[in-house]
Amino acid sequence: MTATSTSFSTSTEETLAFFNTIPKCAEILSQPDRRVIHPRNPDTFFHSTLRTNHGILKSIFIYQPARTSTSPNSNDTDTDTSAIANPPNTNPQEREREQGYLLLHLGRGVSGQPDIAHGGFLATVLDQVTGTLIRASGLDRGRGAVTVYLNVKYQRPVRVPGIVVARAEIGRVEGRKIYVDGEICVADQESNGEGEGDGI
């Protein structure tokens, strides 16, 4: 059964309103078929430990399903990720690629060097956006997934505090392995880093 709602909690409404003031984020939020994903069992490290008044100040995950001829146009919010899982007889390799966006408002608490986000934190962001996309797409079949390989190429520093957009895209599926590409960029710049990984 699909659990879809067009009403948000106050905190989600405030978060969406905040990110809608950032042009790059507003462009993502205006895409047809996009869905705000609320994880059923959010991981403690990313959603609690790093969520402080000087670490991750605000965050929201946006799922963009693969566009197909039968995909309805909707800006609904999905609170049940099973509602967007692959139909049982759908081959993910024959569909257009699903994408996920993690919008983040970062404080100075994630710095390595002064006012520069720690490289290990950015790798964590890539791991988070790729893993959340796998769960949102239903490719994990509800069992969850773990990262077995993560390769990160850093291109330029990410200044903090600031707004960051992490994007992930499903690559290919080979048995239990799901290959995902990702990148991180500051909201007013081009890509700051990219990564690739696979999970099982």
UniProtKB/TrEMBL annotation:
Residues 68-82 have a biased composition (Low complexity). Residues 83-92 have a biased composition (Polar residues). Residues 67-95 are annotated as: Disordered. Residues 116-189 form the Thioesterase domain. Gene3D superfamilies: Hotdog Thioesterase (3.10.129.10). This is Thioesterase domain-containing protein. It comes from Aspergillus pseudoviridinutans. The lineage of its organism: Eukaryota, Fungi, Dikarya, Ascomycota, Pezizomycotina.
